[in-house]
Amino acid sequence: MNLLYAPNWKSQQRQFEKKNVCIYPVRLAMEATYQRNQGHNVWFDKPTTQSDKYDRIITEPEGIPFLDLPIPDRKLTNAFHPKYQNNGNYKYHPGAYMLSASGCWHGKCTFCVEKNQQYQVRSVESVIEELEGLYAQGFKEVFDDSGTFPDGDWLEQFCIWKCAAGLADLPFSCNMRIGANVDFDLMKMAGFRMLLYGVESANQETLTKIKKGFNYDQIIPTIKQASEAGLSPHIAVMFGYPWEKDKDSRQTLRLAHYLLRKGYATTAQSSFYDVEGEKSNEEAKKYVSKIFEVWKYPEFWYNKIKDIKSKEDWGYFCKQIKEGLKNV
Question: With 70 as the cut, is the pLDDT of residue 75 above it?
């Protein structure tokens, strides 16, 4: 069978309001590699002008059982393509996306397209094998895009094995949850760099309604602890919840600015709550770009500049400024 995999902006997204993000669709790449291994002719990310040439054109993962999927063939699936490398999750290039688990172990956030999905985790051995392959191929950083990276005993074993495999110098970033069972110092020793946290809101009512599974008073201590261990927390917040008033949006903005000013959060992103079947608070759209107004605080610049210790730090810093200027 002739199969064309044609990724679109939804192929690796959890929140469909982020429509202009081009990230490497790793789950789709794993499925394409699986089908290639089954003997099918597979093309990835090619023009669809000759659609009659293909038996099927696939744009989104088809649900092949996660633990049956192989390590993706990065050459087959164009992982080195510049459009996939121009990604804010990488400080070092070329970078690679991978998946250690399917979905999120919490799996209840109401806005997430992976909610209620079965959480399956690969073996530590399999993940280390993939990291060794990525390192050999010349990738300089890895971002694990599992909805939430495994924590607890699995994470501890992963950190120990990553060090034992000589991969502690391969920067590793991932999605993490407030309230996860983690040892930040051990993660730093194993080469973790950025931890992406979905903070979403500074209002407890909202956190409860969207079923985040943590309390507001856990946010600042968690981000601060990660930062003090030498990690780089990245926070994500949302505006436009139907039930929130202007004062609620301002409170979330103040939290984001506080974490950035203090240097607890290294970077941040904001998005607009846009869930099918719900009427978003359109007035709150103005706050999505206001997160970048943290540049007005001298304390923010002081903490940014004092953390620059290498040419990669400087390049990443300049990239952040460039992105910020687009939104001011």
Answer: yes
Q: Are residues 228 and 167 in the same domain?
A: yes
- Asked whether residue 63 falls in the same domain as residue 163, the answer is no
Q: How far is residue 24's CA from residue 1's CA, in Å, rounded to a whole number?
A: 24
| Listed residues 63, 82, 101: the one ending a domain | 82
Neighbours of 311 (CB within 10 A): 8
**Stretch 85-90: mean pLDDT:** 87
Mean pLDDT for the stretch of residues 210-231? 98
What is the average per-residue pLDDT within 65-92? 94
Regarding whether 16 and 121 lie in a shared domain, the answer is: no
Decide: residue 22, CB within 10 A, 0-12 exposed, 13-18 middle, 19+ buried.
middle
Residues 6+ apart with CB under 8 A from 272: 17, 238, 239, 240, 280, 284, 285, 288
Q: Is the dihedral of CA 157, 130, 137, 88 positive or negative?
A: negative
The answer to whether residues 266 and 217 belong to one domain is yes
Q: Which of 58-62, 222-226, 311-315 has the lowest mean pLDDT?
A: 311-315
Tokens of 204: 């407890």
Number of structural domains the chain divides into: 2
Please tell me the distance from the alpha carbon of residue 298 to that of residue 305, in angstroms, as a whole number. Answer: 11
| Burial profile 229-264: b = 16 or more Cβ within 10 angstroms, e = fewer | bebbbbbbbbbbbeebeeebbebbbebbbbbbbbbb
In angstroms, the Cα distances linking 323 to 154, 174, 217 are 35, 21, 30
Of 37, 60, 82, which residue sits at a domain end? 82
Q: Say whether both 63 and 130 belong to one domain.
A: no
Task: Give the span between the Cα atoms of 259 and 232, in whole angstroms.
Answer: 12
Residues 6+ apart with CB under 8 A from 19: 9
Q: Are 68 and 99 found together in one domain?
A: no
Give the Cα separation of 53 and 237 in Å (integer).
43
Show the domain range for 261: 88-327
Residue 13 has what DSSP assignment? Answer: -
Q: Are residues 64 and 103 in the same domain?
A: no
**142-171 pLDDT per residue, tens:** 999 999 999 999 999 999 999 999 999 999
325: three-class secondary structure by DSSP = helix
